[in-house]
Amino acid sequence: MAGSRVRVPANAKRGEVIEIRAMALHPMENGFRFDTQGTLIPVNIIHTFICRYNGDEVFRATLQPGISANPYLSFTTVAQDSGMFEFVWLDDEGGYETAWAKIDVS
Amino acid sequence: MTHATPLTRRSALAAIGAGALAIGVVTPGRAEGNGMDQVIREALAGARATPGRVHVDLPALAESGNSVPLKVMVDSPMTAGDHVRRVLIFSDRNPRPWIATMSLGPRAGRAEVGTNIRLNGTQNVVAIAEMSDGTYWRDERNVEVTIGACDSLALRF
Fold first, then answer.
1. What residue numbers bound the domain in which A23 lies?
2. What is the ipTM of this complex?
3. Are strands A72-78 and B98-103 parallel, antiparallel or unpaired?
4. How far is A34 from chain B (nearest CA, A)?
5. Facing residues of A34 across strands?
6. Beta-carbon separation of A64 and B100 below 8 A
7. Cβ of B107: how many Cβ atoms within 10 Å?
8. How close does chain B come to A44, measured CA to CA in Å?
9. Does residue A29 contact residue A35 with C-beta atoms inside 8 Å?
10. Which of B39, B84, B115, B118 to mutate to test the interface with A (most CBs of A within 10 A)?
11. Whether A76 and B153 lie within 8 Å, measured CB to CB
12. What would the pLDDT profile of A12-65 be if each residue is shown by its tens digit?
C-alpha cells in the first residue's frame, strides 16, 4: 500500500477524550469498474482497520466497497498513559499498512 | 359483419382490472430497492432498531457521491456498563447496502465516529448503534447526490 497519515494529539491530560484521525492511501477498488481494455477490475479494498493504544485495541472498523478511496476514519479515545498508538490497515490482496504515533499524557 | 370477440363493458373492466393488478405485482413498495431492509434484519439477527439516540451528520446535498463526509454520534455515557459496542452504516441505493461496521468500547470516551462514504445517487443513509445491553438504535438521513459514485465511473471510461 502507498502510505498513510494519522493525527494524534502530541500531549493530553489523563482522562481527556482525544480525537484520532487516520487515512490510508488506497484506491478501494469496488469491483464495478472496468479498465481501458474493458476487463473488470477485481475488488480490492481495505477490509479492516485496527487502532491499538499501548497494545490494547481501542477501535476497529470493517469496511465495504461503499467507503471512499483513501479511507478516512475519525474516532475518539480516552488518554490513559503515555505511549504509542498503532494503526493497521489490511486489504484484500494481503497488503497492509502500519503507522505509529506517540502521545504524552500528563 | 360481427366481431369475433366483441368488446363488452364487462370484458373491458376485466382487462383494466388485470392490468392494474399486473402493475401492482411488478412494482414493489420500495422501487429500486437494494435489499437494505433484509441486510439490516440479518445484521441485527432479527432484533429491531428503535429510532433515537443516534444522530447521523451528513450534508443535505453532495455534489459528488465519491466521497461524502459522514459522522455518527450516539447518545451514550460510554461507561463499562453502558456503552456503544458497534456502529453499523447502511445505504438503500448502493449496490452493496452494508457500508461499514465500527467497533468501539468504553475506552472511546465518546461515541463519535466519522468517515467518507460513496453514494450511488440520492438516497437514505441509515446508522444503527448496538449498545452493550443488546439494544439497537437507529437514525436515517436523506442525501441528495448530484453525481453518484457509480455514474461518474461510467463517464470516466
1. 3-105
2. 0.90
3. unpaired
4. 8
5. A40
6. yes
7. 17
8. 15
9. no
10. B115
11. no
12. 999 999 999 999 999 999 888 888 898 889 999 999 999 999 999 999 999 999
Per DSSP, the three-state class of A27 is coil
Name the residue in chain A with its Cα closest to that of B68.
Answer: A68
The CA distance from B12 to B128, in Å, is 50
Average of per-residue pLDDT values in chain A: 94
Smallest Cα distance from B58 to chain A, Å: 14
Q: Are B36 and B91 in contact (CB under 8 A)?
A: yes
A58 near B CB under 8 A: yes
* Predicted local distance difference test score (pLDDT) of residue B20: 55
Per-residue pLDDT of chain B (157 residues; tens, 9 = 90+): 555 666 677 766 666 655 555 554 444 444 457 899 999 999 999 899 999 999 999 999 999 999 999 999 999 999 999 999 999 999 999 999 999 999 999 999 999 999 999 999 999 999 999 999 999 999 999 999 998 887 755 555 4
Question: What is the predicted pLDDT for the residue at B43?
Answer: 92
Contacts of residue B47, Cβ cutoff 8 Å, sequence gap at least 6: B134, B135, B136
Per the structure, the count of domains in chain A is 1
Which residues of chain A neighbour B119 with C-beta distances below 8 Å? 66
Cross-chain Cβ contact B116/A62 below 8 Å: no
Q: How far away is chain A from the Cα of B91, in angstroms, using its nearest Cα?
A: 9
The CATH number of the domain holding residue A28 is 2.60.40.10
Using a CB-CB cut-off of 8 Å, the residues of chain B touching A67 are: 99-100, 115-118
**For the whole model, what pTM was predicted?**
0.82
Taking CA atoms, what residue in A is nearest to B153? A33
